[in-house]
């Protein structure tokens, strides 16, 4: 009998979980505008043991049981305040009273967002428009009255009492009823007269504690069902709160678009600054390097021409010196050009170019490039310089004995990873080389992640958007 009871209980819990998940999905679909809030709650554990251990279950249960007082309080305040304000509008006293009430219910909505966050772990962003600057309270009140979010707050607080009343009744019935069934053997033992449990046309009489054990198993199953009911009501409540107290879909899109625009504007500005810095570096390298060598070559050739008839051997030595200087200038120009955009990257692609970098590194570097085809030139260039700067940092600071470079495609991204077994501690400090790489990646809406705990290993990862 006990084995069958356990199987029935397990099957019932599974069925209850499936039903609860179906109901949660339906609620999230119906209240799509509040789906962000609902999904946060729905992503919690759904197994009976997981819900039993999760604080979300018990925080939700406390809120659903105690929220009735909050809803009733705001219903009384708002109804009395609105009636008094409208009644006193004739003598103009109602207008400041209504303004004060509006400020109060906006504060109540802010408090409710905090309570929902504490109970369900759901953060509801503020939907309000910015208030006018200055100290004029009339302008601020007019802006608040013209904000649709203010009136959504009012509707939510007025609807809060019937919603919390329903939640309180359901919570009380399922939790208290299940607890009473669970402790039925104790009740029967204390009463001494037995107890009867009826459900529709089915009834069960328990005359002693042993006969009451099946009822106790029903109570245990009821507690499992109560946890699922609590979770579904928490999803419904958080979805409704997200719908009424959070920003509308249009506001969310505007906020995201504004953030993205600001991010792109900042990244473009950093890209322009990086390009200007690079131009000055090239100018400085040309002035201090190749230009000085070519000037020395010109002077040597001029001196050789003057000595050509009188001192042929001296002229020959000057020509040899000019020839060596020319070769050095060509080498410096080649290195400078490689720093701008290496020819091997243009001619043969990323794999040979990175292999060339690895071959010049002071530590063994394993290179793995797995791309279905060549990415755009901008992506190739940024990937190349990320690897070049990372390997240069490894040579200077990491004290590593080996490193690896991996370039793969993941969905619509080209992922570049450089890993070394050095001492770690690297970070993208403002003005540093890694910060410059992050700015390079940001110019094409990519990102750079530096993971370098003290003691290593160091992982430099860049995600670069790419469409073939």
Automatic annotation (TrEMBL):
Transmembrane portions of the chain: 61-83, 89-107, 154-176, 212-230
Q: List the Gene Ontology MF annotations in alphabetical order.
A: ATP binding; phosphorelay sensor kinase activity; protein dimerization activity
Enzyme Commission identifier(s): 2.7.13.3
**Pfam entry (one):** Sensor
**A GO term from the CC aspect:** membrane
Reaction catalysed by this enzyme = ATP + protein L-histidine = ADP + protein N-phospho-L-histidine
Per its UniProt record, what PANTHER family does this chain match? NITRATE/NITRITE SENSOR PROTEIN NARX-RELATED, NITRATE_NITRITE SENSOR PROTEIN NARQ
The protein's name = histidine kinase
């Amino acid at each position: 009998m006990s084995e069958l009871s356990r199987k029935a209980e397990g099957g019932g819990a599974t069925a209850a979980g499936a039903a609860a998940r179906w109901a949660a999905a339906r609620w999230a679909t119906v209240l799509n505008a509040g789906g962000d809030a609902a999904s946060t709650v729905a992503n919690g554990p759904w197994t009976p043991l997981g819900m039993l251990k999760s604080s979300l279950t018990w925080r939700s249960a406390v809120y659903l049981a105690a929220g009735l007082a909050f809803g009733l309080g705001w219903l009384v305040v708002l109804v009395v305040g609105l009636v008094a304000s409208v009644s006193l509008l004739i003598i103009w006293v109602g207008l400041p009273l209504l303004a004060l009430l509006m400020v109060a219910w906006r504060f109540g909505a802010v408090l409710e967002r905090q309570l929902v966050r504490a109970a369900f772990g759901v953060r509801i962003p503020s939907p309000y428009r910015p208030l006018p600057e200055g100290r004029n309270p009339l302008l601020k009140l007019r802006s608040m009255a013209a904000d649709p979010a203010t009136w959504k707050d009012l509707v939510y607080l007025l609807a809060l009492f019937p919603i919390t009343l329903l939640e309180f009744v359901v919570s009380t019935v399922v939790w208290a009823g299940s607890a009473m069934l669970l402790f039925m053997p104790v009740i029967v033992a204390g009463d001494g007269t037995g107890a009867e449990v009826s459900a529709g046309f089915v009834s069960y009489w328990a005359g002693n504690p042993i006969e009451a054990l099946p009822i106790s198993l029903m109570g245990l199953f009821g507690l499992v069902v109560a946890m699922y009911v609590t979770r579904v009501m928490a999803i419904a409540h958080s979805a409704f709160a997200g719908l009424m107290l959070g920003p509308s879909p249009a506001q969310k899109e505007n906020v995201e678009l504004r953030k993205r625009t600001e991010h792109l504007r900042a990244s473009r500005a950093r890209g322009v600054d990086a390009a200007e810095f690079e131009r000055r570096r090239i100018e400085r390298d040309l002035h201090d390097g190749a230009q000085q060598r070519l000037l020395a070559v010109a002077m040597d050739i001029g001196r050789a021409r003057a000595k050509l008839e009188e001192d042929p051997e001296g002229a020959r030595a000057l020509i040899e010196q000019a020839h060596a200087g020319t070769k050095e200038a060509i080498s410096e120009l080649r290195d400078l050009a490689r720093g701008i955009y290496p020819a091997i990257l243009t001619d043969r692609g990323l794999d040979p170019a990175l292999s060339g970098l690895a071959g010049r590194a002071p530590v063994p570097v394993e290179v793995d490039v797995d791309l279905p085809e060549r990415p755009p030139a901008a992506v190739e260039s940024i990937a190349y310089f990320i690897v070049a700067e990372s390997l240069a940092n490894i040579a200077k600071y990491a004290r590593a004995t080996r490193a690896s470079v991996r370039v793969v495609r993941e969905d619509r991204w080209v992922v570049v990873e450089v890993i070394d077994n050095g001492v770690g501690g690297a970070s993208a400090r403002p003005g540093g080389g890694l910060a410059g790489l992050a700015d390079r990646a940001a110019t094409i809406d990519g990102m750079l992640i530096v993971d370098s705990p003290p003691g290593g290993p160091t992982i430099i990862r860049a995600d670069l958007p790419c469409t073939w």
